[in-house]
Amino acid sequence: MNQVWASPFQALYSTHIVENDPILVRDFIHSALYHPSHGYFSQRSRSVGVLPNTIKFNQLQGRKAYMKYLDNVYKQSDISWFTPVELFKPWYAHAIAEAIMRTANFSVPLKIYEIGGGSGTCAKGIMDYIMMNAPARVYNSMTYTSVEISPSLAEVQRETVGEVRSHIPKFRVECRDAADRTGWEHVEQQPCWVIMLEVLDNLPHDLVYSDNQISPWMEVWVERQHDLETLRELYKPLQDPLITRCVEILDLDKTKSTSAAVSTLKSIWSKLRPKPRRSWLPTGCLKLLEVLHEVLPKMSLIASDFSYLPDVKIPGERAPLVSTKKDGSSSDYESYMEAKGDADIFFPTDFRILERMDHYCSGWLKLHSDHSSKKGKKRRTILLETSSFMEEFGLPTKTITKDGYNPLLDDFKNTKFYLSVPTHNTK
Fold this sequence. Notes:
14 helices, seven-stranded mixed β-sheet, Rossmann fold, single chain, globular, 32% helix, alpha+beta, 427 residues, 20% strand
């Protein structure tokens, strides 16, 4: 039986996202971010900033001087967000290139795919590093493909990479949704690399809701109210296949394995003190991983993103920040339904869930399978703090200020790197 609920999550909204029929939360978020005409990334090519010059960290006194420098840059450009790869160019991209070079199989041409390439700074930095440090045959035979959903950002990427003429024939941008299987023409059987920097946080998520601690999860839809100007949530029993798979992979219904006595106590407590539950599901990430593992079965993956977000106002596990920036200052919405194409919607990444989904999509972790099996994993994965990744593969001495403060290592404590490579286990 469907349930509706409006307050306190009703929001004034132009009616171009939710029309006559309800839509899933993931479709609402996808449209708010990526719709060709009114989506946040589609209409705001300047949502991702490009620094005109490399920051000379060794000329800054310390943290205070660095923050003042950044504040001035943000005010001058009215940019919503400078990515780490932009702030620390070229060193951030060089570290990723070094990680690739240490483990790449150079007996076959190097193929790199980047999902959501932003301003193209990462692509240019990686290609620069390989041109300077790899054998000439590796650079000459390499290809770098950016899969970018935003036409305006795709054009920025072409301009950025095109600053080095020899990169141009090796680089191409495919303007499409990487999670759409129809955009991938064929299965790539050769080893390749996939890079995703600050991509997972902007992937559409779904939302499930439960009235109390033991009630079943229900999927959340968004619909227009009768006045046609406000939105409300609609709850339906789980039926969407992607949501259902995600709920099972995350094992949200852990109560099934509890004893009868514990279940009875929970049942009594849920009636005495009912506590509604809301859980955000990374269904967009699951869909993307399913497609990538199908079309790039021998891919190695490097992903970096937020492991947590501070001061989130929206309720629920793994809830997003919905932030807009006007006149140089940011403000956060209290409901995801307030996003009107003028706000970024970004989520924290639970990297253990990412690892579990990665194993599942590779075909190793099958639900309801015999977990006592001796079969080997198909992926070898490692999770690193950003500072650890940069110390291992980068040149952190390049980003030290005069007093020893190093924003590359000392900041971004809420970001991590996830590396996943195929093993030789074929069972």
